[in-house]
Design brief:
Elements (H helix, E strand, L loop, with lengths): L1 H16 L19 H18 L5 H11 L24 H8 L22 H7 L2 H4 L26 H12 L6
């Protein structure tokens, strides 16, 4: 019986981890992207990696591989055994599904902003979410009020933040027009 309770607790925690439950003070309220002294030591390495990634060619297959690895779990943006999942109505399970559910589609959290604006990564909600800048970029739409956290938290939520190179990959793909190929 203890194993069953433990399993249920783990599954419940995983399922809640990708939702955006109401909160009065979200963990990413200010600043949008947290930093600490430990990150300073790797900042130069990250900057070099980010600069190299800025010139990398954009490939949706690489972007989809990133989504598959970091986002497409059943508790997040994948499909569960019951066919459910897809936090925020977003499924990132395969190339066709991911592309059609993101490009020129409104975000579930801020419907006035599209998830991916081809050619414009700075105004794409996907970029704001993976960079954790949605509150600074959309202060009115993401204003926190008691019991409400409309823009959620930085993605991926159940894993380490994307590296500068991974974020640049997404930016470059969008900058190239968010092509399917």
């Amino acid at each position: 019986m203890n194993l069953l309770r433990w399993t249920l607790a783990v599954l419940t925690t995983a399922m809640l981890g990708c939702s955006d439950p109401p909160t009065s003070t979200p963990p990413d309220a200010s600043p949008d992207v947290a930093t600490d002294a430990g990150e300073d030591a790797t900042a130069e390495d990250g900057a070099a990696e980010d600069a190299a990634a800025q010139d990398a060619p954009a490939s949706f297959s690489e972007v989809q591989a990133l989504f598959t690895r970091t986002c497409a779990m059943p508790a997040c943006h994948g499909r569960g055994p019951d066919g459910g999942g897809g936090s925020g109505g977003l499924f990132l399970t395969d190339g066709v599904t991911s592309h059609s559910s993101m490009v020129d589609r409104p975000s579930d959290q801020v419907s006035s902003v599209r998830l991916v604006v081809p050619g414009d990564p700075d105004n794409s909600y996907l970029v704001m979410k993976v960079e954790g800048t949605m509150r600074s970029r959309l202060p009115v739409q993401c204003a926190v009020s008691p019991g409400r956290n409309p823009c959620g938290v930085q993605m991926p939520q159940l894993a380490a933040p994307l590296t500068p190179a991974e974020r640049a990959l997404i930016r470059n793909w969008i900058l190239a027009g968010a092509p399917m190929m």
